[in-house]
Design goal:
The protein folds into three domains: 65 residues, Orthogonal Bundle (Arc Repressor Mutant, subunit A), CATH 1.10.10; 100 residues, 3-Layer(aba) Sandwich (D-Maltodextrin-Binding Protein, domain 2); 106 residues, D-Maltodextrin-Binding Protein, domain 2, CATH 3.40.190.290. The protein is built from twelve helices and eleven strands. It is globular.
Length: 309
């Protein structure tokens, strides 16, 4: 089995179309089909059910797809480790990020790490929550941040910081007459949400909040990032529910944050790690998290005025 076989498999599994997969790999379709056949013969199983109309993963193919990306992640990390050692770094910290982590908090943490231990090479990986959990179990990541504590056995989830939830509203929207917007009023308008598979932890927290009222939300769009979510809000397509620091970070005058009426819900970010004794490098990193997030302000005076005005 060669890496080219695995690359071909991932391309076909993602496209579920041999012609598009071949175009994606910049090769002809016949060598792609031959590579898949060779891989299936070596594994002794059929990975795809292929007809003239469709291509589908078999059960064996779906299971294989869960494992193959880890091979490339491990290979990339090996390359990174070699380059880091050649550049003079003495240690490495692999951090996985899910759910659109609050920029100001995480930026302050990274800056402190760089100041305290410039000899530690920090590598960041933006991945869905399910992939982060698998990667922590498989020792592909040392630590992660996500907006979910539902991580199963073998993983520790410790609250790192919380961010007040606000309604992201386009400028000149009727809801801006409210200083604090009732949730049932928010749900009279379309919402833009993050894709639940890409922002799983964020989606769970928002879903719990939406279940507190007996109104079915109208989801206008599901997007891959909080940046695109706020861009659609600015364009007037929909409202969004985000952390207040996301409003500040986007720096867009066409997006205004308003608190929800009543007790303001919080979006909590968790530090995730394996339930084992941490390395000295990881232990020092964990020790930095609480002081950094305690000292870092959520808002500047100007941004606080903007959110609450």
């Amino acid at each position: 089995m060669e890496l080219r076989h695995l690359r071909c498999f991932i391309a076909v599994a993602n496209e579920l179309h041999f012609a598009r997969a071949a175009e994606r790999l910049h090769i002809e379709q016949s060598p792609l089909s031959r590579a898949i056949k060779e891989l299936e013969e070596e594994l002794g199983v059929r990975l795809f059910d292929r007809t003239t109309r469709s291509t589908r993963l078999t059960r064996a193919g779906k299971l294989f797809l869960e494992h193959v990306p880890r091979v490339f992640t491990a290979l990339d990390q090996a390359r990174g480790s070699v380059r880091a050692a050649a550049a003079g770094y003495q240690a490495q910290l692999r951090i996985a990020l899910s759910d659109g982590i609050t920029p100001s908090r995480f930026t302050a943490l990274l800056a402190q790490c760089r100041q305290d231990e410039p000899e530690v090479d920090i590598q960041l990986y933006e991945v869905p929550l399910s992939q982060q959990i698998r990667g922590l179990h498989d020792d592909l990541y040392d630590v992660g941040f996500a907006q979910s504590a539902e991580v199963g056995e073998g993983i520790l989830a410790e609250a790192a910081w919380s961010d007040p939830l606000v309604v992201a509203v386009p400028a000149r929207h009727p809801l801006l007459t409210y200083k604090r917007i009732p949730l049932d009023e928010v749900l009279r308008y379309p919402l833009v949400m993050c894709d639940p598979q890409l922002c799983e932890g964020y989606g769970r927290q928002i879903a719990r909040i939406l279940r507190t009222v007996d109104v079915e939300p109208l989801v206008a769009e599901e997007v891959a990032s909080l940046d695109l979510m706020l861009a659609l809000v600015a364009a007037g397509y929909a409202l969004a529910l985000v952390g207040s620091s996301q409003i500040i970070a986007c720096r867009n005058a066409d997006v205004i944050g308003r608190p929800l009426a009543g007790r303001s819900p919080m979006l909590t970010t968790y530090l995730l790690r394996r339930d084992v004794e941490p390395s000295e490098t990881l232990s020092r990193f964990i020790d930095r998290v609480s002081p950094i997030i305690t000292d870092a302000p959520l808002h500047t005076p100007e941004s606080t005025k903007e959110i609450n005005s």
